[in-house]
Structures are given as C-alpha cells and as structure tokens.
Amino acid sequence: MTVNHSSVLSVEYFEAYFKLVLASLEPVADKAKKYIEKNFFKGKECYYGEQTQRNFITAYNKLKDKKLQIANNSGINKVR
Description:
The chain is mainly alpha-helical. The protein contains 3 helices and no strands.
C-alpha cells in the first residue's frame, strides 16, 4: 500500500486498515494495533504526522468501542 507523506490519512482509512489486519493477520484489536504501529508507522508514533496519528487512535478507539458494545450485547464479559 503506497502512502503519500504529504497527506493526512483519515479515520475511515484506518478503520478499513484495521478491518484488513483483523481479518487477515491478527483477530485481536490490541495486537492488530501493535502490528500496525510496528509495520505501518515503522515504530515511530508520528511517522506520518500528528493528525494522521490522531486519526489512527480515533479509529482504534472506535473499533474497541464497537467490540465492547458487541460483547455487552451478547453477554460476553471479556473483550478481546
């Protein structure tokens, strides 16, 4: 996936990226986050800029909230 360093990547971009990683490599959100931080951001928090980093964290938090809602609705106490 080619990324232009001069543009800010959106929350929607990272939501799609999380879905791809979760479906193909790592089904646990926390581990998917670590995978993306290591491989996409090259281990540098603001590799693509502060706004892109904030959008990444927003997408991650939305994913965690969605998983928590699903777990609560299904009666599961622990969220992966």
